[in-house]
C-alpha cells in the first residue's frame, strides 16, 4: 500500500506514549529484593549448559508491562570462566500501558546528538538504550530507518546486511532488512523516484557510489542542520514545498535556513535536478509518496501501520538459534569482548527485549558470539545488534522514582555517556492509579562518617511514582551502625542494618550495609605523585575496590590521613602541604579507612619542563571540526609583538555551520597524540586569547585510551597572551598518557552570547612532573649476599644476623623484606587484617598481599607469577619481584646457593 504524506513529514518530537522492552549486561548494585533466582534454560542451550552460563539475579518493575531483570552470564575464555553482568528490560507487547518508541537526538531532530539519559529526560521515557549505528565523524544521522508513530524520521541507507526492529500498531514485532521506495508526483503528471528521507552522505553498497549523485531526497523539519547533507560530493538543486505547493526553487544552490515545520525540501542532483528544472515550478502542486519494503520477501510496509522502527546492524538470533552474521563484524570489533547493545523478541511475539553487554570494572563485555549465546539463553527468538562499544548505555527508572537513571557505568568511565544519534525508549501512558506500595529510596551501602539522604516514596497500581509528599514518616535503624540525622542516616560503625520508615500503619524497610575495612580490597587516591614543596595543593579523591568487585568513591569525610616527611592536611579531598621536614627528599600521605591502609601518595621534588615550544616540531598538526560543518585551519606561524622571536601554534576557526555544541581541534601528531611526562601533576600553556567567551581545552588520552578533558579557560574572556595552568591531579589520569588536542569549544547553551569565529594561539606547553630518577641515587649503594637456609647475610663484607633464613619454594626465592630495606633504604608496613605489606622506597610504592599474585605498583594493578607467603609466623616476599620493582639488582649463584643484591 502506498501512503501519501506531505505535512505529515514534519518536525518529529517523541512524546510519552505507548512503548516496549530492553536487555543489558550491567553492574550488580541491586537494592531491591531478589525475585526468583536460578539458572535459565533457552532453546539454543541444553539445560545443563544453560545452568552453568545464565543465572537470574533479580528483577524490579519499571512500569506496568516493563521490568528490569538482572543476570550473571558465564563464558569461557582461554579455558577459564569469565562472569559478565546483564540487565534485561522485558516489555509485554500486549500491555496497552507500555510501548517502545525512537528517541532522536535533541528536540527529536537528526544531526543532533544527545546522551541516552538526556533523551530519556527530554521525552519522558522510563527506560532507554542507545540505538542505531552512525558515522562518528559525520553529521549524527542514524544509518538505518527510524519511524515514530507512523512517520518516517530517516529512511534506511543502501547498505548490505543491515537489519531493523519494528513494532506494528497491533503490537506484533518484526526484525527484517528494509529498503525504501518513494515517488514525487508533479502537477504535469510526471514522476521521479525518491531515494530516501533525511539521510546524510554515504557510500552505497555494493556499488560504492556517492549516495546523493543523480538522486532526489526529502528533508523534513526533523533535519536540524542547515546543510542537507554535508560533504555529499554534489551541488544541490532544492525545492521548498509547503502545504503541497512549491513555494521556492533554488537551482544548483541550497535554500538557506532550516526546513519549515509545515513543509519539506526536495534535494536533487544531476538527473534529478534536470527533472526539477523541467517539471516543477513555483505555485504548482507537488506530492510525494513512500513506503518501506522487506528485502527478504519483497512485501511492502506502510509506515502508518508502525508504532516504531529503529535500525541496527547484523542479525544475531533467528528462530531461537545463533544466526550467521549478515555483514562483516570487523568494523565493530565483533571478536573482541566490548560493551554491546541488542534488541529481540520472544517466539510468541509477546515479549520484547533490548540487550546490552556492559564493560567496566564489574563486567568484561562480550564478543558477538557470546552475546548470541546470552540472547538465546534468555529466550530471544529473533534478535539483532544495535550500536555498541562506548555508545552502549542503559537508563532505567527505579521503582517509585520520577526519572530514568544510568543503570551501569559505561565503558567510557569518567568520560561519561557518549552523545548518540538516537535511542530506543520505553514509555508509559498508564493513568494515575491508587497507592500500591511504599519504598525506601536511598543508597544500599555507605561508609563510616558518611551521611546519606533517604526518603519515603510510593508507587501506584501501574508501578508509576505517586505523590507521597503528604506522608509524615518516622525513621529507625535496627542497630547502632547507623544514626538518623535530619534527612538521612550517618554511618557509625561497620556492619549490616535494616532501616525502617513508618507512616501511620504502613511500614517499609530496606537492608543497608555500612562498609568496613574488611570489605575493601584496595584504597587508592586518584593522585599518585605531587610536588614536594610548601603550599602545594592537589586533589586526592579516594576510591576503594571492594571484595565484591565494585569500585566506589569514598567520601572525604570517611578517609583518615597519615603524613611522613612533611606537615600537611586534607580538607574536602584536597591535600595541602604546610611545610617540608628538613632534608626530606620524599614525603608520603597515606589514606586509611576503618583500619585498612591504602596506597600512599608520593610527594617528591618536581620540575617543570617545556614539552613543546613549536620551534622545530617533527610531527603533523592538523585541523578537525565537529560537527562536520565546523571549519578552520591550524598552522605554525611566527609570533608577533612579545612573541616576535618565537613560533606559535595558531588555530583559526569558523563555527557558524552546523548545530549543537561545536569544536575546533588542533590535532597533535595526527590522531595518535604525543606522550607527556609520567605522573604529570600540572599542565601550563601560554594562550593568545580572542575574548570570544568560548572555552579553551586540552584533551589527553590515558593508558587505557580513554579521553581526559582538561579545562584551560572557561570562558576565554581575555585578549593578548596569558599563562593558563590546569591541575591534572583531579582527573585521575592513568599513565602513560598523551596529549592529543588543543581546542576551542562553543557549547550549545548560551551559544548566542559567544563568538562563532575567531583565532587563538598556543605557545610553550609545559608539564610539571616528579624529577627524573627520584630513586636509586637518593639511597645507599651497597652489596649484600644471602645464602639459602642461612640466618645471616653479608653487607659490604660485614656479617649480619637474620631472624629468618631465605628459602627456595617452587623455583622462587623468598626473603623477609625488612633486611633488604635496612640495607638499601626504604620502609615496609604490615596490615595484619588485610595480610598486606606495603613497601615504600623513594617514588616507588609496592603493595603485596599474602596468597595473591595481583599487586599494586604506585596504585596501578599488575600481576606476578608468585605471591608472598607466611612461614613460621613471618611474612616472606618473592625476592626478585620486589627487588626489580625497587630498582635493586639480583644475581643468583646456583653452586653456592647465594643471592647477591646490588644498588
UniProtKB/TrEMBL annotation:
Q: Which InterPro entries match?
A: Cu_amine_oxidase-like_N, Mao_N_sf, NAGPA
Alphabetical UniProt keywords:
Glycosidase, Hydrolase
The record's Gene3D superfamilies line, in alphabetical order, gives:
Copper amine oxidase-like, N-terminal domain
Keyword Nuclease assigned: no
Source organism, top-level taxon:
Bacteria
Domain Phosphodiester glycosidase as annotated: residue spans? 238-427
Copper amine oxidase-like N-terminal domain mapped to chain residues = 794-900
Which Pfam family, just one, is annotated for this protein?
Cu_amine_oxidN1
Give GO terms: molecular function aspect only: hydrolase activity, acting on glycosyl bonds
Q: Which PANTHER family match?
A: N-ACETYLGLUCOSAMINE-1-PHOSPHODIESTER ALPHA-N-ACETYLGLUCOSAMINIDASE (PTHR40446:SF2)
Q: What is this protein called?
A: Phosphodiester glycosidase family protein
Q: What is the lineage of its organism?
A: Bacteria, Bacillati, Bacillota, Bacilli, Bacillales
